[in-house]
Amino acid sequence: MRMQPRQQLLEIWNSTVRSSWSEREKKWKFGGRDAPNSIGDAEQLLCILTPATKVEAFKLDRPDETAEDMIRALRPLGNATEIPKTLIGVLREYFDRYSEPDGTPLFSGSSYYSSSGPAQPTKEQLRLDIVDSFAMSVTLSLAVLGFLKVLRSVASREENRKEIEALELMASTRLSAAMVGLLRSFTVNVFDIDSGYGQALITMINQENLPQRQVVSAIRRDLRETIASFREVLIGSGQVTDIDSPDRLFEVGWSWGIVNGAPSIETNEPVGQQPKGFAQDAPYLYFTVIAVDAIEDLFSERTRVLGLLNEEQQRLSRALQLRWELTRSYWSTMATFGAARRWPVEDIPWRTTDEDASDYYTLLVTSLAVKGLVQERGTDIELGRIGEVVGELANRARITRKPFDTDPALSLHAPGVLVPLVGSEDAGEARMLWTVSEFAALLFQRTTVIAGLISDAEGRSRMLDLADRTWEHLNRRRLDKGSGRNLWDQPTSAFPQLTTRYDKPSWYYTQRVVQGLVTTANMLNRPPLRSPRLGNYAFDLLTEAEHLYDMELLSGAGDAGPRMRETLKVAQIHLSRAREILPERPGTAAVLAAQVLISLDELAAARRDVTEAG
User: Fold this and answer.
1) Region 360-384: what's the mean pLDDT?
2) pTM for this one?
């Protein structure tokens, strides 16, 4: 790859600390382009913690093993021993900042909210909980708990242990509250097939122009296990009783916040007050994908191995995992429905049931489709089809193509997609909006995820090439001035047609770039792909080289002069090494075998010259 994830992540660490740390006050400065809020401040911290907890080379929880270039990147925070202590102080400030005096965690969107009309959001509306904050809090809390779990094992002073335990309690409380929030934001929207929602859904997925009844029957057949599983949804929102009718369809996922009428969750975790819900009882694609990605962290290998969840959190996690599976199964089925030559997700743009169409929605659906293919052991061909959709989206969004002067595609990048938060008007005068402008960063992340899943070398190479080209686009969009230089996002640097320029970083955008780089780093840290063709080629070379080597020994070459003995000794070492690594690294084995063949041919040529001269 042309991008270098390690170097790029180190630059982001350095820029994040330079932008966020006050040397004079020795204090972390929350906020960036937007005023501080529970989501943006978590994203700001995750720019440091995501690499530190998900990439082995970037670990900070064992100070004696922290690499020197990591320490240099974070130098304002102190040395290897001081960096974890400084982060503990910053994290405590975050958890304190977004908790009520009684300890109830706060999950408002605050400065990320805007409105669709002249009326501005009221203070009550700005305090409404939102799924983005629940999801980001799950990710941050698990990162903090994992970081502290390892750090505590090497902490020797009692004072440090007490600080760690206090922060663990705060992170665990916020994690539990965020899980409860996600359980109360889950929704199943059931509708008649003849309704506007039903007709929109059927039109989107019916790529073969089949009769409506046949399409409905096929959908319900493909989703029969999913429909049966809804009987297991016993706590929180999303409980339905009218889903079994053959004349009804549905969609499943997460609304933008706590669903209107959502019941409270009974739990012995100290989650504090469970506020009333205002969100529309219908799923939103953006918030569904955000929630699904966060919930995966709850049952990841790292969470299990480190034992980050207590018994009650495991109960809540199982309830969320059921919702995760229902959502993944539903959207994967919708995205790849039917036996047509074209899947619905390939029919760009995706049109939602409320008749809103956007390339951004297609990008979101590709994420859910990939999760389904992974769960069902999809083939490289199927993953490659999703990869082609992502490549087409990069073209349409002018990431890998030049835009024309008044290109409507540029609105994907600035101002982005505006998502109305239906139901928010019941808490005040304005209907609030959620602005989503992450298209290029999200496309980069999805491209690297797909590349890491494809086992075919040629298919992976195509996706990595797309990732490189997307990275080139993102690289142009970095801020080039001020304390936030080298962070994101400055869309005018890539699209001169846009006029708004920024002088402060967007943690919303930067954190998503970090996610893509972390995915890339972990993919590159795995063994290279094994090509069957290359393996056969390497095996044939090795077989010939070993045979010729044995012939040399049989002819008595091993008893010849020191130079020939040295050549044969090196050949033996190369052959042994090639045989050892052949299953995992056939390309390297082929090169070693080829070197042996060249050396043995030189011996044969030299012997022939001596014979002819005599």
Assistant:
1) 90
2) 0.88
